[in-house]
From TrEMBL:
<dbReference type="InterPro" id="IPR010065">
    <property type="entry name" value="AA_ABC_transptr_permease_3TM"/>
</dbReference>
<dbReference type="GO" id="GO:0022857">
    <property type="term" value="F:transmembrane transporter activity"/>
</dbReference>
<feature type="transmembrane region" description="Helical">
    <location>
        <begin position="75"/>
        <end position="98"/>
    </location>
</feature>
<feature type="transmembrane region" description="Helical">
    <location>
        <begin position="12"/>
        <end position="37"/>
    </location>
</feature>
<feature type="transmembrane region" description="Helical">
    <location>
        <begin position="139"/>
        <end position="162"/>
    </location>
</feature>
<keyword id="KW-0813">Transport</keyword>
<dbReference type="GO" id="GO:0006865">
    <property type="term" value="P:amino acid transport"/>
</dbReference>
<keyword id="KW-0029">Amino-acid transport</keyword>
<keyword id="KW-0812">Transmembrane</keyword>
<comment type="similarity">
    <text>Belongs to the binding-protein-dependent transport system permease family.</text>
</comment>
<dbReference type="InterPro" id="IPR000515">
    <property type="entry name" value="MetI-like"/>
</dbReference>
<keyword id="KW-1133">Transmembrane helix</keyword>
<feature type="domain" description="ABC transmembrane type-1">
    <location>
        <begin position="13"/>
        <end position="201"/>
    </location>
</feature>
<dbReference type="InterPro" id="IPR043429">
    <property type="entry name" value="ArtM/GltK/GlnP/TcyL/YhdX-like"/>
</dbReference>
<feature type="transmembrane region" description="Helical">
    <location>
        <begin position="49"/>
        <end position="69"/>
    </location>
</feature>
<dbReference type="Pfam" id="PF00528">
    <property type="entry name" value="BPD_transp_1"/>
</dbReference>
<keyword id="KW-1003">Cell membrane</keyword>
């Protein structure tokens, strides 16, 4: 019975993973761009991005999802549930990670970029090749932690008819008169994914601390 339940849930799990990866592939670069703009961009760019990120963080993810899914058809733009979720969650992800990236960029000593610019390196090259590599090391663990929330949040797609893991679990459970066990199995999948991501986050933190210790010993 358990193996048949797992087999029945696999299509939903695959959909969940596709949604999750799609959101991260779009949301993380958007968040990085927004973080760069908020920290170093011109004022004409900072203010609109600040407004969008504040809205993205202020609206609950479900509200943003509904606004995209039900709002775009009002503008004669028809989207599927999967596209609506990826668009809405990418905006939410970018809005939260923008501040993470901005803070990491701000934490890199400004003298390093100034030294590179003094050697004739253009400002964007100094930011890209001097500041960003250090900032990205700082944000790996927070980004992985946020990725866990995104994975769990994909279950909201069920509310607009997407047959992801939760949707398939409920549908299969209803047809087999075994909703509780199917939902429990779906929860087990989420738990396993959570534990794997937390393990990866801890490993990254340990590696970052080890790198920092080695760097400190070299400098001293």
């Amino acid at each position: 019975m358990t193996m048949s339940m797992i087999a029945n849930l696999l299509p939903g799990l695959a959909t969940t993973l596709v949604l999750w990866i799609s959101v991260l592939l779009i949301g993380i670069p958007m968040g990085l761009f927004a973080g760069l703009a908020l920290q170093s961009g011109p004022r004409a760019l900072r203010w609109p991005i600040m407004l969008v990120t504040q809205i993205g963080r202020g609206f609950p993810a479900l509200v943003t999802l509904y606004l995209v899914y039900f709002g775009l058809p009002e503008l004669n733009v028809t989207v599927t549930g999967s596209v609506a979720l990826v668009a809405a969650f990418s905006l939410t992800t970018a809005s939260y990670l923008a501040e993470v990236f901005r803070s990491a960029i701000a934490a890199v000593p400004g003298g390093q970029r100034e030294a590179a610019m003094a050697l004739g390196v253009p400002v964007w090259s100094a930011t890209t090749f001097v500041v960003l590599p250090q900032a990205l090391r700082m944000v790996i663990a927070p980004v992985l932690g946020f990725a866990v929330l995104v994975l769990q949040g994909t279950s909201l797609a069920y509310s607009i008819g997407v047959q992801e893991l939760l949707g398939v679990a409920y549908s299969e459970g209803t047809m087999n008169f075994d909703v509780f066990d199917y939902l429990l199995m779906a929860g087990a999948f989420y738990l396993i994914a959570y534990l794997l991501l937390m393990w990866a986050t801890s490993a990254v933190r340990r590696k970052a601390m080890s790198f920092q210790d080695k760097r400190t010993r070299v400098l001293t």
